[in-house]
Request: fold
Amino acid sequence: MSDLPSLRKKIDTLDTTLVNILNERARVSLDIGAAKRQLDNTEGLPTTDLHVYMPGREKEVYAKLTRLNHGPLKDDSLHAIFREVMSASISLQKDVSMAYLGPPGTFSHQAAYQRLGDSVVYVPQKQISDVVDAVEKGQTTYGIVPFENSNFGSVVETLDRFVKTKTRVRAETYLTVHQCLLSNSPLDKITKVYSHPQGLGQTQMWLAANVPNAKRISVKSTAEAAQQAALETGAAAVCSEICAELYGLEVTARDIEDGAANTTRFLIIGTSSDNATKDDHTLIKFTVDHRQPGALCDGLKVFKDYSLNLFKIDSRPSGLHPWHYVFFVECSGHQQNEDVQKAVKDLDQFCLDVVVLGSFPNQRPE
Ligand SMILES: O=C(O)C(=O)C[C@]1(C(=O)O)C=C[C@@H](O)C=C1
Reply:
């Protein structure tokens, strides 16, 4: 066993090597940025559209790290370190900003941070549709929107905004969600509970059992609920534990979500999708021509014809005529794959309108 000063000397030497290697990596990243700019120019795209966040490549890097890692560092620790290495790498290539449903402390904020790290600028928005607006207007490079929860299902505000969007899905990311009840009043004095409809929905059984008479009030986000609860006596919020410190509230109860393994899936949107990997999903929206009997059924069959797995189907009112719907389907494959292109072409025969909202690497946790 060496003595402490000599062990620290070893660490100092290794840190010097690490700093030099990290900077060598950063220089290669700058070269990659220059190469991407050149590519964009040859494709006639404005360089402001330059895409530096490459979820497909990052998935490959993380998989390689897991293969290379023989400890004692845990995979999660190594991934967290590389999250920041790649975040810094992204910001060297271009100033990147990400719109999210604010204020700070929402699950969207945590999911964004988990995926893009510390070197990206996060821009809070008042509601989900503003996140999409920010990307469409070019105010931020990317945006993150909640898409569905494993227990409470689809986030309808996101789907409703996707009915009319020019943005494209670039990535997905999953976040384990633990809901808390935060308040500055004791449980038996709580008369109002604020949250996003998803927060209230994911905890409805717990709320019914523990605060049966409290009024449930929906607001635009879980962190806005915390802000509001901090202003009123007898008010509580269903939100993340981090909101306690952010907004000056006490934790009345932890882990109050009704279902086990409560997980929310988020989509990262931008102006285009990344290139195909070997394991992608594609999100498509379409409206069928109801004057053709069986149009929806025939439309869905095209996915079977090309052996594309369907993971999700949703519908929302189109907003154009009563009882007229926009359908959303998520299938296996990438829009650059021939089978997906053929399926979309065939689907078009049964539809008034088909839009591929984007393709992204599958990140579903096993
Ligand atoms: O490979 C790229 O395209 C890069 O920009 C490099 C890099 C990295 O640092 O490894 C950085 C950002 C991307 O999201 C993926 C990878």
